[in-house]
Amino acid sequence: MIRGRNRFFIYDLRFMIYDCKFVGRGTQSEIRRTESMKYSRLLGVVLLLLVWVFSAESQSPPITTVIVEDEVFVEQPKHLGVNLGTHDQFGASQLLKNVITNPGFEAGEFASFVFVAEEPETGTFQQDNWETRWNSPTVGQLEGFWDGAEYEVLFGTATGTSGQVEAFTYQDGKNTFVLDKTPQLNQEDVIVLRQDVAGYIGDESAVDTTQTRPNSPGRQSLRLQPAGFTPAFAYYMDSLWRDGDTTAGKLMIVEGNWHFEVWAKGSRNGDVMEVTWQRQGEAIFMSETFPLTTEWRKISHDFYVQPGLDSRDMNADRPVNGVLEFTIRIPENASTVWIDDIDLSRRDYTNPTVFTDKVVNVLRELEPGILRNWGGQLGSSLENQLAPPFARKTTGHSPRADQPLNYTYSLHEFLELAQHIGAEPWYVIPPTWSDAEVRALVAYLAAPAGDSQWSNRRADLGQHAPWTEVFSEIHLEFGNELWGGNAGDDPFIGATLRGGERVGTLANARFAMMRNSQWYDDDKFDLIIGGQFGYPERQAQIEFASERHDSVALSPYFGYIDVATNNEDLFYPLFARVQQDMQYGAMAITGDVIRSEQSATDLAIYEINFHTTTGDVPLPIRNDFVTGMSGGIALPLYMLNYQKWLNVQNQAAFVLSQYSYQLSNGEYARIWGLLRDLEATGRKRPTWLGLELANLAIRGDLLLTRHGGDNPSYTAPTINEIEFPVNVPFVQSFAYRDEASYAVVLFNLSLDEEQRVILQTPNTPDPQAVLHWLDGNDIRANNETSQRVSRKSRQLSDFSQSYEIVLPPHSMQVVEWSDAGNAVVYVEPVVTDTPAPLPTATPDPSVVALATATPIPPPTVTPVFTPEPLPTSVLDETAMLFSPTETPVPSLIGEGGRIIDTQPFVQDFENVRLVAQNYPLIAGILGVVTGVMVISFGTGVFLYFRKK
Question: Which residues have CB under 8 Å from 335's CB, separation 6+?
Fold first, then answer.
């Protein structure tokens, strides 16, 4: 049995059916044919004998033995993590207590990458990634937008040149920039622009920079004028069900104790302002008139909203049109009124962070190892990322927009949340930062208070000790998908760099500055560059251009479907793709690429989930696919496989909460949100529940498990992302140990057959154990309109060293136990917030019947006192025991790091596997002829002998 911790060891130990010389850990496999037939006839005879022996064993009732070895396979694996996302006033992600974004009515800021279209002769250049014909009243940037902006050349001969943009105009259909210098620029050089944007969401007439409330951290207030029936200030929330996905229903229900606060003054004594918060056409939660004076004063008002006033029963007899509307009106007989620093928040939320109790509680239930901060901050400055809420600006980065509309929580607030829930923080650094900002980030995170203005800023915000003393490790990623094309179809245009060479070069320079800081501690930071999962050559470009990063992060999204005839077409390829990834897919190739550069780079996962956004599959099928029970199996299955076989420690699923996403055809797919919503129902989608169950098991070290007995499997067809037939065992296992405490995760990937498993523990366990499982009535069951999938647990009182467990079809279970004398007792979890039922009139999405649904019975367990052992044989160092998940594949890197064609190798191995599995006698004859032994234990485990 081969064991080890090398994060890519499974790929270092690949074989062809021809002779293979294993060079050593962390090196390439040297593949060569041999002329020698030594031992071939003897091996063929042994093959025939073993086939006869194991054919007899295969007649026993189908059962799989899972042996948990008391041997560390991966040291100290982390809990699976999650992306926090950004606050969404219109949809399902109400993350912040204060529901009003940009509550200080502050100005904005913009930062953007532009590429030089062609070599200019003067200090004037044109932008090659934007054409003015794309502009419209709501798209593009008007002439003059970048006048006075700061610029810096980041990539090219003139790297480091900085100055000011003197003019921004249109010429020959291109955005044109006139600089104050004449740097030597070449085509596709990269320049970063930084610019403040005055006003409130671009409206300068709405603000007053001479008026702020006393001691305000901000720089301006909002100026309101009488406007008759039209509100002087209007703020709308929870409008997705009216303006987008009509199936969403209300995603935010107003009830409980609330607090309203604002600073205000009038231009004369006796002025008033009328404040209303209501569900349009349904209910008024607050309607108050507040008198004003000519002096700033803080207005506070607490109010209670009776549950049911904001009805969950959306009347089916009338159109759904009630959005949440907060307004301030100034009577016609009044004059100018100023307001500043507004707060509208629920007083029932009492946790110490700026995030709602719903956010904090659900994250505590998940217990993520990693919390990733990706909130659209690509155009924000460091100053703004540390600003308190009333001083924080809105930001932007895309040439599609001239209004900086993004407002999110700060870096400091994010770190407070990570500290509060006990997760390691993963922060996406805006790539548009200057050298000084990059260096200042290290000081803010690691310098003692008093040593730097930035550590003093941290202390002023309430954190005196360095953050490096709070967290065991801080993960810093330079940009988000920075390799993007920076063109019209790039979702992050304006903040991407076109390929891996520029990404590696710029990140390397920035990381060098960080490492040179006197406060930088290599043991405390993980410096990350985002790679491109679908294009492994990108990782080679990054590795070539950078040596100062620690990790390359990928996003192995899954669930692309083109064929959806039946459940088998949908779900068997879904479960198999992770095996393909690790055998000869993008993860395998990326591992080879990284090793070919002889680097110590770690692999990480910055985002992972379904990505069922393309193809012609009908929307009901698509929605069932991404929200169903299958996701509760698939997402943890992928992440645990990456953790076990690739030692990917830092993983973050995407994203905390989102109801749906609009596809290019205009339809709304219920994709990416691990929570259906936070406020209206609080229901967890099966993907979230699967992560919870996996994290319940992860502890201490990951142990080796071996499978024997029948160990049945299936072969996924070449549809829906599967490039070559992939053989996948139905039973998958992941075991963990922390001192005397153990847990194992068991999957049954069969869609319609239960699997009998005999679990063999390494030591005598205490009879008191606990069984946890995902419970749902079929593989497409979801929690969209009612709770149909949930986590369940029960106490076991008869657990033993050999214990039979019946895994229902398409199921995930966790068994927790301890060594004798250390009983595991199941304690019913405290419910922090009971999810409310969804409105009964919400349109229920149609369900397309793909196959007869098989209800999932509760799991059954039975003590077994006579364990069924694995088949045993004496193996020398030239033999290796594989499960089908480890089908040997040759190295995919040729001379000079060139990626070679994998198809003939994969097909060779598939042919051998099929022959060994279905025609053992023929396999024996081939063994005599070729000197290669391929032994099938039942249908699940294969033994490959290779010649010396």
Answer: 226, 266, 267, 268, 271
Q: H or E element: which one contains 573?
A: helix 567-583
Contact 87, 95 (CB under 8 A): yes
Nearest to 231 by CA among 241, 239, 222, 240: 222
In angstroms, the CA 750 to CA 391 distance is 55
Would you say 482 and 495 are in contact if contact means Cβ atoms under 8 Å apart? yes
Classify 935 as helix, strand or coil.
strand
- Upstream peptide bond of 82 is cis (omega within 30 degrees of 0): no
Strand-strand pairing, 652-653 and 81-83? parallel
Q: How far is CA 498 from CA 492, 507, 532, in A?
A: 11, 13, 12
What is the per-residue pLDDT across 174-216, written as a single tens digit (0 to 9) for each? 999 999 999 999 999 999 999 999 999 889 999 999 999 999 9
According to DSSP, the β-strands at 424-429 and 370-373 are parallel
CA angle 416, 422, 425 (to 5 degrees): 60
Q: Judge contact between 581 and 560, C-beta under 8 A.
A: no
Q: Around 824, how many Cα atoms within 13 Å sit in the side-chain half-sphere? A: 23
Find, among 60, 69, 64, the residue nearest to 732 by Cα. 64
* Listed residue (787, 789, 786, 793) closest to 855, CA to CA: 789
Mean pLDDT for all residues in the chain: 84
With residue 757 as reference, give the H or E element that holds it. Answer: strand 755-760
DSSP characters over 307-368: TTSS-SS--TTS-----EEEEEE--TT---EEEEEEEEEETT--SSSSB-HHHHHHHHHH--
* C-beta pairs of 296-300 under 8 Å, 24+ apart in sequence: 296/213, 296/214, 296/263, 296/264, 296/265, 296/338, 296/340, 297/263, 297/264, 297/265, 298/213, 298/261, 298/262, 298/263, 299/260, 299/261, 299/262, 299/263, 299/264, 300/259, 300/260, 300/261
In degrees rounded to 5, what are phi and psi of residue 265?
-155, 155
Q: Which amino acid is at 473?
A: E
- At 264, list the tokens: 């205000």
Q: What is the per-residue pLDDT across 558-570, written as a single tens digit (0 to 9) for each?
A: 999 999 999 999 9
Whole-angstrom Cα distance, residue 581 to residue 577? 6
Place of tokens 């996302």: 85
Task: Judge whether 672 and 687 are in contact, CB under 8 Å.
Answer: no
Whether residue 871 is predicted with pLDDT greater than 90 in this model: the reply is: no
| pLDDT at res. 58 | 44
pLDDT at 708 over 60: yes
Q: What share of the chain is helix, strand, coil (3-state, %, to 5)?
A: 20, 30, 50
Residue 942, token pair as written in the block? 């294969």
- Assess contact for 338 and 221: CB atoms under 8 A: yes
Tokens 């799989």 locate to 64
Sheet holding 64-74, edge to edge: 789-796, 769-776, 811-818, 741-748, 731-738, 701-709, 64-74, 755-760, 802-807, 860-863
Beta strand 283-291 with 370-373 is: unpaired
Q: Look at residue 378 and tell me whether its pLDDT is greater than 60.
A: yes
Q: Which amino acid is at 543?
A: E
Q: Give me the residue label for tokens 């809105």.
A: 394
CA distances from 25 to 4, 28, 203, 601 (A): 9, 8, 62, 15
Angle in degrees, 0-180, between the axes of helices 500-515 and 435-446, rounded to the nearest 10: 50
Instruction: Write down how long the chain is.
Output: 948
Assign 484 a pLDDT band (cuts: 50, 70, 90).
Answer: very high
Give 306-319 pLDDT, tens digit per residue: 999 998 865 544 45
Tokens of 496: 């991407």
Residue the block writes with tokens 């799991």: 859
Q: The whole model's pTM is what?
A: 0.85
Question: What does each C-alpha distance from 30 to 21, 24, 34, 893, 934 come to in angstroms?
Answer: 6, 10, 12, 11, 21
pLDDT tens for each residue of 437-469 = 999 999 999 999 999 999 999 999 999 999 999
